[in-house]
Design goal:
This protein is of the alpha+beta class. The chain has a domain of about 240 residues: Beta-lactamase. A hairpin with a 2-residue loop joins strand 11 and strand 12. The radius of gyration is 23 Å and the shape is globular.
Amino acid sequence: MLYGQDNIIYNIKTDTNFKDFQWEKDSDIIDQLFARYSGEKPGASLMVIKDSKILVNKSYGYADLEKKIKATHKTNYRTASVTKQFTAMAIMILIHENKLNYDSKLTDIFPDFPDYGNEITIKHLLVHRSGLIDYISLLPEDRIDQILDDEVLQLMKIQSQTLFHPGTKYEYSNSAYAVLAEVIAKVSGIPYSKYMKTKIFDPLKMTNTSVYKKGVPIINRAYGYTISKNNISKTDQSTTSAVQGDGGIYTSTSDYQKWNKALYTDQLIPLKEFEKSLVSSYDDPELLIQQYGNGWRIDYSRSIKITHHSGHTKGFTNYSLRIPELQLCVIAFSNRNNEDAIIRIGNTIAALYANNRLLIPIEAFIEAIYENNGYKKAIELYIKLKNTKENNYLFSGNALFIIGQKLQKQKKYKEAIEIYEFNLNEFPASFSTCFELANCYFSINEKEKAKIYYKKTIDLVPTIYKTIFNTSSQRIN
């Protein structure tokens, strides 16, 4: 077990040979990682696909707490930014059909678009290099009614400039993908939702998948929730929840596996065209390196390409990860607000199924042990794993930093200090750990100790992080 009695608390990591990891005999490991989602709580669904075979198909908790409907592989979650890979594919289909091209300008498609649109190409929109202003920042604070994609486009049309010259910088943009939805509608002549159904969902027999539109029922729908301390509240919609192109698709793990299968074929577009879209040559000039293909983030581990995307929206946190070289896909959807644990679990599970080709991140294990046994056991497990040489673990400063943040949020500053001090000893260059350690000492009125760590933060922090730099400087003086 991962947690429970002290004498068996570490068994799943120190006694398991991950070179021989098999779902059939080691499923308890995954169940324990998902224990936080089990019971009468907002839940999660997981699917692992390898070599076209479904190896894991598990769901936990509830899709609808009020009606006591449990989550299943057919539960439809609002995928949030996981939607972007679908929107990007729709654009690629139009390009393949010669109805559009990557160099098409916004002013080519929308003649009434302001002059600055003459510098923004379809490719800029796809890879977050457009510089379009974030539409959320343009909404009044007291707005109640939901904004739609067309209104996002209209908001862009009344702007006179971009955040930066298009193509010169990476900045993640929901505005870009809302505009892309309108590009799809304009070029195809049919609404975005109909285009997605006609060109993607129906051909792939994704019969459980739909694009959100207020008032239109969603079958097998999961509702979003927020968990705070012992309180669970329904937080299913916001003013931005009806925007379709950047995050409006509802799908299930069962339907997503059909999508994943199609991405190894020529069914939607030629496979070579899709693979070419996942080669990014864009690096941020200020060291904030982001490699982004059409609707996918791109990372490399041991020279293996990992394509992935998270999705965050009110009441939902989701994650999808594909490793084409290993024919491996991990899908993890949850109906919980800001529950990044699902992403950490997804990365760990992907490594477990990678035939020892990837290092195994420890964050999910550390977080699970903390949730059930406290922060001291989390430190103990960290040490235990570090001394376990036969396994292939990936250690990062994030593993215990996450625990420190949880304690800090609960105002358990002394416990957080213990975690942060241990973490800073392990990762002396971690300016985030150093800064939060200083904040904890500041919170308990130990100003001299706080100053020591604020000064150290200034030495460690890159100057691009102005907020941290300035706060540290102000609190020293």
